[in-house]
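--- STAGE predict ---
source: upstream dedup step, 1 unique chain passed
mode: sequence only
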Amino acid sequence: MLYKRGKTWWIDITTPKGQRIRRSARTSIKTQAQELHDRLKSDLWRQAELNETPDYLWDDAGARWLKEHTHKADFKHDIEKLRWLQPFLRGVPLKKIDRETVLNIVHQKRQETTPATANRYLALIRSILRASVEWGWIPQAPMLRQLPEPKRRIRWLTKDEAQRLLNELPAHLRDMAEFSLVTGLRKANVTGLQWSQLDLDRCVAWIHPDQAKAKKAIGVPLNDQAVQILKRQKGKHPQYVFTYQGNPVLQTNTRAWGKALRRAGISDFRWHDLRHTWASWHVQAGTPLHALQELGGWESVEMVRRYAHLAPEHLHLYAGNAQVETKSSTSQTCHSSDGEEPDN
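--- STAGE serialize ---
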């Protein structure tokens, strides 16, 4: 049967197996609603009596995928991506979404953003289509490759630049930025840090699996500077460590952050680059990559290798293997970083 809610027609059908289905026809025209009603009723009969596979829509797959991925740390971002995708894929049967369809959508996104961001949308489409194969809704998913992404250099601050920035920040952001520089914690882990995650006597903090990007618990050793920053926050809030005017800090990329960067003479620098700075300082100070991986909670050592070029001193032993003997060659020996000559 058909009935109206406001200006929109709705469908009420009972399947051959006795299941009741009520859904919007998404139209205010009765003839269109009736056509959809009849088609749905026919499809349900064919599925029940002839064992035909139903034509699942992108909308069906997106809704089920969201229900199964509410645990994701970036779940809210996935919802935003799906909203952007809806005008392109709303009402489209999954079996009609081929490689060309997806690439056209991704290239459309590429017109307004970077290849990296466009690839995040492609990855979401690919994930939903692959899940649809697992559910038995489609026989296979199209092969999709990501767009080429330019390699982005690691942006980090010198100790002098970092101090200039800290001097320009308001007190609440200064403490958070300084804490990020000495612990390497991601923005969400700093803004969401609670007193229950700290043991100041043992100088340790914990990031729980549901708070970590890699979904693995991270034990964070706190140096003296980190402990002093935390002690300055005591008494400000019963639950959250970093607050502003009695409320937890939710956003760090504020107007105050931008103004502080300009006053400090620092450009092309994001809050996340504080983590890059922390890792860069560690590597330059000689922290082994495997230790840095554990400290930063990276899932793969490849994520840490991007900092390796900042400390090439261990390669000095081999640099002399490609020397060319010329009359202008000198016998000067390069010194190691600690001022001592390397052993021969």
